[in-house]
Amino acid sequence: MRWKTIFLGGIAILTACSSSEPAPPLVTGDAGTDGGSVADAGGGADAAPKSVCEELGPATTAAAADVVSTKQPASAVPAAQGGTIADGSYVLTAMVGYTNGSIPTVPTRLVLTFKGDKFLAARKESTDTEKSTGGTFTAASNALAFKYTCNGASGGIVLNGQPLTYTATGTTLTTFEQTYAGDGTPGSAIITAMTYTKK
């Protein structure tokens, strides 16, 4: 069977792509009284607005350590409680796969930063190249969703495929996602819980 690699709360790795910010808009001067044109006061073009990746960055996993998933029975998945996700940076500190089958054990580093309704994420798996992305998020009841707006849409990362549920305590964030649908055998599906600790 094929494993679904798990970014956000978890993450799947896609082919990384990049995109560049659009060039700053050209600012034209107002017409002068002599019929010529003059530059606006201050001169030069207005700066392009910063992307979320620029505003909250730089994204890096330097503060994180490798985390390898452990396993618990499929019946032991805790209920997602929702809660307020406090602004700040969160480092992945635990991964648990709830299943009666086997789980992947890929060393993973992941750091999430939240500010208002914006997020920044950096992830590194095993010896792969570090990847990052950012955008906006919504948290309602116990559901969490992400919208990518910089670094080539997802920056080579998909943060927990939708739907994603979560529990936030103010100092920790735990996300829950079905990362493997199973082979039809009861308990063979995998629900992955990823716990982040606020720095």
Features:
199 residues; mainly beta; Lipocalin; 8-stranded antiparallel barrel; two-stranded antiparallel sheet; 1 helix; 11 strands; globular
Helical content class: under 10%
* Named CATH topology: Lipocalin
Inertia-based shape? globular
Strand/helix succession: EHEEEEEEEEEE
Question: Helical stretch count?
Answer: 1
- The side-by-side strand order for the widest beta sheet comes to 3-4-5-6-7-9-10-11
Rg (CA only): 21 Å
- Determine the N-to-C terminus distance: 37 Å
Compute the number of structural domains: 1
Q: What structural category arises from helix and sheet content? A: mainly beta
CATH architectural label: Beta Barrel
The CATH C-level name is: Mainly Beta
Task: Tell me what the structure shows.
The protein is an all-beta fold. It has one domain: Beta Barrel (Lipocalin). The chain contains 1 helix and 11 strands. An 8-stranded antiparallel beta barrel has the order 3-4-5-6-7-9-10-11. It is globular, with a radius of gyration of 21 Å. The model is unreliable at 1-40 (pLDDT under 50).
Short description:
The chain is an all-beta fold. It is 3% helix and 39% strand.
Topology:
Elements: E1 11-13, H1 52-56, E2 70-72, E3 88-98, E4 108-115, E5 118-125, E6 131-140, E7 143-150, E8 157-159, E9 164-168, E10 172-180, E11 190-198
Parallel strand pairs: 2-3
Antiparallel strand pairs: 1-8, 3-4, 3-11, 4-5, 5-6, 6-7, 7-9, 9-10, 10-11
